[in-house]
Design goal:
It is a single chain. By secondary structure, the protein is of the alpha/beta class. The protein is built from 13 helices and 15 strands. Strands 4, 5, 6, 7, 8, 9 and 10 form a seven-stranded mixed beta sheet that branches. Strands 12-13-11-15-14 form a five-stranded mixed beta sheet, with helices on one face. The protein is globular.
C-alpha cells in the first residue's frame, strides 16, 4: 500500500520539474537593450525656457538642448564647438531623452539628453564615423541581493540598468543578451563560477562574442524602503578575474534605478580603462582548438605512382578540401546590406559558401563563411575590399572603412575654363 501511494506523488514531482524547466525556457526573463545603434550621446543638458504656451516652451527647450548638446559634442570630438543651423540639427538629432522635466503653463525646466546620428554628425564635424573598439564582449551582469545571485534566472534591476545603457560613446563592443529563449539556461549565476573553457567557448560562439565581461553588484539594504548600498565589481574572463571595484549609496529604495545607472557608467569606465591598459587581451584558451592534421595512410602513397596524385588521395578520404567555418559579424542597417555583403564575400577567391545565420536588421548580424585557406588570408582579402577587420581566429568583425580624402592634395595647374 505504501509503494502504491508513492507512485502518484513521484509522477506529480516529475511533472512539476518538467514544467519548471519548460517555463524557464519559455518566458523572457530580461529586458532587451533600449538602443544599440551607436549614436553619439550628450546627457545632462539643463534648459529653462519661458513661452506663451506650455507646448511652445517645451519645443523651445528641446531646440535649446540640441544647440547646447551640439557644442558639447563638437568640443569633445575636437571640432571647436561651432554652432550649425537648427535645420541641420533636426537632420542629425535621432532622439531626445527626458531625464527630468517640469512643465508649467508658460515655462519648461528640464534636464535632457540628446542623441546624434553617428554618420551624419561625423560628416558635419569632418571626422571618421568609426572608432577603434574592442573585440565583441559577452556581457553577463550578476546581481547579488539578500544572498541570492541572479543573471537571467529572473528579471532584475541590474540587467535592466544595462539594457538602458547606450553604448555609442563606449570603446567596448558589448554583446548584451535580452534574457529570452535559452539565455536563462546558458547564462546564470552558476555558470560564472565554472572556469571550463570548452563550455565557455560554446556559449560565446552562440552569441558571436570573443570574450566575457562580468559586472557584479552586491546590494545591501538597511531596512525595507531605506538606504541601499551597492558594492560594484568589474570582472573579466572565465577565471572571473577582478579588474576594479567601487561603492555607491542612495538614501532610499526609490533611488535604486539611479544608483544602478550611475554604477553602469562607472563600470563601463573601468572596462574601458582596462582595455586601454591591455588587461582585456585575447585569451588563447577561448579560441577554437586547431584543426587536426590530415592523416594519410602510408600504403596509399604507393598508389600515387599509378597516376593518382596525393591531393586526390587526401580528397577521397574526406579529410581535406572541405574548408573551415568562419563567423563574420557585420552591420546590417537594411535588407540591401545583407545581399551586398554576402555577394561581396562570395566573390572572394577560396570562399565556398557565405550565408547569414543570424539576422538583426538595424544591428549586428552573423554570417557563416566556408573558406579554403587560412583565416588571415580572408582577413587581408576583406581589407583589400575596403573593410576594417577586427577579431582573431575564426570569428571576425567587419565594418566599412571611412573614405577620407588626403589633406595635402596639390593644386590643379590647369583649372577648367
Amino acid at each position: 500500500m505504501r509503494i502504491r501511494s508513492l507512485i502518484p506523488t513521484l509522477g506529480g514531482a516529475i511533472l512539476l520539474v518538467a514544467a519548471g524547466a519548460y517555463a524557464q525556457i519559455e518566458g523572457g526573463r530580461g529586458a532587451a537593450p533600449v538602443d544599440s545603434s551607436g549614436d553619439f550621446e550628450v546627457s545632462g543638458v539643463a534648459v529653462d525656457v519661458a513661452a506663451k504656451t506650455a507646448d511652445a516652451a517645451r519645443l523651445g527647450g528641446w531646440r535649446l538642448a540640441q544647440r547646447k548638446a551640439w557644442v558639447q559634442l563638437s568640443r569633445r570630438l575636437g571640432a571647436g564647438g561651432a554652432l550649425v543651423s537648427d535645420g541641420t540639427l533636426d537632420q542629425m538629432v535621432s532622439g531626445i531623452v527626458v531625464e527630468n522635466e517640469q512643465i508649467g503653463p508658460s515655462r519648461y525646466i528640464a534636464r535632457l539628453g540628446v542623441l546624434f546620428d553617428r554618420g551624419r554628425a561625423a560628416s558635419v564635424l569632418g571626422i571618421s564615423a568609426y572608432s577603434d573598439r574592442s573585440r565583441p564582449m559577452l556581457l553577463v551582469p550578476l546581481q547579488i541581493s539578500a544572498g541570492v545571485g541572479t543573471v537571467f534566472e529572473q528579471r532584475n534591476d541590474w540587467q535592466e540598468a544595462w539594457a538602458r545603457f547606450r553604448t555609442g560613446n563606449s570603446a567596448i563592443d558589448y554583446v548584451r543578451p535580452s534574457g529570452t529563449g535559452a539565455d536563462s539556461l546558458l547564462l546564470n549565476a552558476g555558470q560564472i563560477g565554472r572556469p571550463g573553457r570548452g563550455w565557455w567557448r560554446t556559449i560565446i560562439d552562440q552569441y558571436g562574442a570573443s570574450d566575457i565581461l562580468i559586472p557584479v553588484v552586491r546590494l545591501y539594504r538597511s531596512y525595507p524602503g531605506g538606504p541601499v548600498i551597492g558594492v560594484f565589481q568589474a570582472r573579466h574572463g572565465p577565471d572571473n578575474a577582478l579588474i576594479g571595484s567601487f561603492t555607491l549609496r542612495v538614501g532610499s529604495a526609490a533611488g535604486l534605478p539611479r544608483l544602478l545607472d550611475t554604477g553602469v557608467v562607472r563600470m563601463d569606465g573601468l572596462f574601458q580603462q582596462a582595455l586601454r591598459g591591455g588587461a582585456l587581451g585575447l585569451d588563447p584558451t577561448l579560441s577554437p582548438p586547431p584543426e587536426p592534421e590530415p592523416v594519410i595512410d602510408p600504403d596509399a602513397i604507393d598508389d600515387a605512382a599509378s597516376g593518382e596524385t596525393l591531393a586526390e588521395i587526401v580528397g577521397d578520404t574526406g579529410v581535406a578540401g572541405t574548408g573551415i567555418a568562419i563567423t563574420l559579424q557585420y552591420d546590417t542597417p537594411g535588407a540591401t546590406a545583407v545581399a551586398n555583403t554576402e555577394g561581396l564575400v562570395r566573390g572572394i577567391a577560396g570562399v565556398r559558401a557565405a550565408s547569414t545565420t543570424s539576422l538583426a536588421l538595424g544591428g549586428l548580424s552573423l554570417m557563416r563563411v566556408t573558406y579554403d585557406g587560412d583565416p588571415e588570408a580572408l582577413r587581408k582579402a576583406l581589407e583589400l575590399r575596403g573593410y576594417q577587420v577586427t577579431g582573431s581566429g575564426q570569428t571576425l568583425r567587419i565594418r566599412r572603412a571611412p573614405q577620407l580624402l588626403p589633406t595635402n592634395l596639390p593644386a590643379d595647374a590647369n583649372p577648367p575654363g
